[in-house]
Design goal:
Helix content of chain A: over 70%
Oligomer: heterodimer
Shape of chain A: rod-shaped
Distance between the termini of chain B: 39 Å
Number of domains of chain A: 3
Order of helices and strands of chain A: HEEHHHH
């Protein structure tokens, strides 16, 4: 073998190594027994496993969500039923109360309230003139006695 | 509102009361016999304003009441009220009868004086 050929071969080897490095996506250029480990191999493998894991997990998650939704629906329905029944009861009670109020006659003694707020109100001429004379007589006598005592 | 004002309001209300007969009786019984001059004065004025035979008799012919009251203030207030009546017919009729027939000379003289005043003023 000639030296020049050997040199060419060396050059080729170097070129090949460069081409192998270029093909590799392994950024560290790890080699095993002189061969550069193809990073794509474990990268692809990793990608596959992650995807797999994700899909498995998503399935689990989805099933959990579905079962969760089902249980939520059931509890929501039962709660809604309770709320609806409570609302119906309130409505019926309100109607009963309104009926009772409608049938109840409310009488407010406004004159009595006014007399308590304004105690001299009954001594106004317009109110006194509506009273029986006998009542006016007893009022007059009481006032005269009070004046005599004072 | 003091008690005196309350009594005055009762007297005023009796002047407007629908039960005129009972009102006049109460005014005669309690009002004209009150020891308070103001109450007697207001009672006499109220009775004269009613301008009925029953109410005018009390203040014109009763001794010590109305125009015959011992208090000059009450007597003068009664005379002024008589003079301010629009229809004096009933009052003059009672005064005429009093002048002619009353047993008390003082009452007759007072009636005569009041009649003269009413005649001249009308």
């Amino acid at each position: 073998m000639q030296i020049s050929k050997i040199g060419l071969n060396t050059k080729k080897t170097v070129q090949n190594t460069h081409s192998e490095k270029r093909l590799s996506t392994n950024p560290f250029g790890v080699s095993f027994k002189g061969n550069v480990i193809q990073a794509d191999v474990f990268e692809t493998g990793n990608k596959t496993s992650i995807t797999k894991n994700i899909s498995e997990k998503s399935k689990l998650f989805a099933s959990a969500v579905v079962s969760g939704i089902n249980s939520f629906n059931e509890s929501f329905k039962s709660r809604m039923n309770a709320i609806v029944s409570f609302g119906k009861k309130v409505a019926s009670d309100t109607l009963e109360t309104l009926e009772r109020i409608g049938n109840t006659e409310i009488k407010i003694n406004m004159d009595g309230i006014k007399d308590k707020i304004f105690p001299d109100r009954k001594y106004e001429v317009k109110n006194l003139s509506k009273m029986p004379v006998e009542e006016l007589k007893s009022m007059w006598q009481d006032l005269t006695e009070e004046e005599a005592a004072a | 509102m003091d008690n005196n004002q309350k009594i005055k309001n009762i007297i005023k209300s009796l002047g407007e009361h629908q039960d005129s007969h009972a009102a006049i009786e109460l005014l005669t019984e309690l009002g004209t016999n009150s020891p308070d001059d103001e109450i007697r004065e207001l009672t006499a004025q109220t009775l004269i304003k009613k301008n009925t035979h029953e109410s005018l008799r009390v203040v014109l012919i009763s001794k010590g009441k109305g125009i015959n009251d011992l208090s000059a203030r009450v007597a003068m207030a009664s005379i002024n009220e008589l003079l301010s009546l629009k229809d004096k017919t009933e009052a003059l009729k009672i005064l005429d009868d009093t002048i002619k027939m009353h047993s008390e000379e003082d009452v007759r003289n007072t009636a005569r004086s009041v009649k003269a005043l009413m005649t001249f003023s009308s």
